[in-house]
Specification:
Strand 2 and strand 3 form a beta hairpin. Helices cover 66% and strands 4% of the residues. By secondary structure, the protein is mostly helical. Helix 2 (22-42) runs antiparallel to helix 13 (270-303), helix 6 packs antiparallel against helix 7 (148-162) and helix 11 packs across helix 13 (270-303). The chain has helices at 13-18, 22-42, 51-70, 73-78, 80-97, 117-134, 148-162, 167-184, 188-208, 211-221, 232-243, 255-258, 270-303, 307-331; strands at residues 99-101, 104-110, 113-115.
């Protein structure tokens, strides 16, 4: 989130604070504010139970963002592996002490705090991979034997998350990791081999999917086969998006969402509610804000002077991109329904 922090590690904390890209922070705050409004609408004109909690989370996250932004990047490099293995330990703990919710065991409850370790691992694996490739000689990146360790760093959390089960998050971790491999300079031929291997493994992997996961994939191809069951979400989502027209029905006036035809309107399908109430115009504004954040984020990555920082920014921004891209594609019927929220809005 910082334009120059990676280029000058010897600045004081005050100097680093003022070097923060405040326009980027403004974009993030604007998107979060739109999220507050949509959660207010989702609760039929009330801050409770979603908007008020989201405001508190954003305030805490904002402070954390500023603290992280002024921390010397050499500190993140030094403790990257430790942070990764702490996240991995929490993932293992979920298997034994995790809380079950909606048929999945994904959360750890620590007093009044409820954590989803797989979310922390999305950043942990990027940190670990960035450090590994940073410490690797440039020529060694092309040697396949040097890729076994980073592949293991990715495989361990992916397998643990798949066991929860959480196919969507496992896919996000995998794709974000591939972005770091690409930024590290891994030859394209290895990506081609992995892609071909993945295609060949689809029939085998299909057998390991849970029944509801298989239904989601089949529903993606033909939602009308089960309109009141597995196809209900996406059918109602398309109806709501289409009914919004060019400028929408207005705040609090979305019939599909406020008459409860649209499920999960405060989480995974909040973009659908936004499209219904503010139309194509509102949807394009949100998409434009996301694209501006991506441009600024990747622009920061291109200006980073050290290899670790460049890979770290690439991994984090790719994770952010995958969140909003998959969520929007999902609610429009362009991608199977998975549990991926819309960042800063849901």
């Amino acid at each position: 989130m910082v334009a120059n922090i990676f280029s000058s590690n010897d600045m004081s904390l005050g100097q680093k604070f003022f070097q923060i890209n405040w326009f980027l922070v403004l974009l993030i705050t604007l998107m979060a504010s739109i999220g507050f409004v949509m959660l207010y609408s989702a609760a039929n004109g009330s801050l409770s139970p979603w908007a008020d909690k989201q405001m508190i989370r954003f305030a805490v996250g904002f402070v954390m963002m500023c603290i992280i932004a002024v921390v010397d990047i050499r500190l993140w490099l030094r403790y990257a592996y430790i942070l990764y293995f702490l996240a991995l330990l929490m993932l293992v703990s979920v298997e034994f002490f995790g809380t079950v919710g909606q048929g999945a065991q994904r959360w750890l409850v620590l007093g009044s705090l409820k954590l989803q370790p797989s979310e922390i691992m999305k950043i942990g694996v990027v940190l670990a991979l960035a450090k590994y490739f940073h410490c690797l000689k440039e020529d060694d990146v092309e040697r396949i034997t040097r890729l076994f360790i980073p592949l293991l760093l990715v495989a361990m959390p992916v397998v643990l998350v798949l066991k929860q089960p959480d196919l969507g998050t496992a896919g996000l971790i995998l794709l974000s990791s591939l972005a770091v491999f690409f930024a590290a300079g891994v030859p394209i031929k290895y990506f081609v081999l992995v892609g071909l291997g993945g295609l060949a493994a689809i029939p085998v992997g299909w057998q390991f999917l849970r029944e509801y996961q298989q239904k989601r994939v089949l529903t993606f191809f033909d939602p009308e086969q089960d309109p009141l069951g597995s196809g209900y979400h996406i059918i109602q989502s398309k109806i709501a998006l289409g009914s919004g027209g060019l400028f929408g029905k207005g705040l609090l006036n979305g019939s599909q969402s406020h008459l409860n035809f649209l499920p999960e309107k405060q989480t995974d399908f909040i973009f659908t509610m936004l499209g219904e109430e503010f139309g194509l115009f509102g949807a394009l504004i949100i998409l434009g804000l996301y694209m501006l954040v991506m441009i600024y984020g990747y622009g920061i990555g291109l200006r980073v002077r050290n290899h670790f920082g460049r890979m770290l920014v690439t991994g984090v921004m790719t994770t952010f991109f995958l969140y909003f891209f998959i969520n929007m594609a999902m609610v429009m019927g362009l991608f199977p329904v998975v549990g991926v929220p819309l960042p800063l809005i849901s």
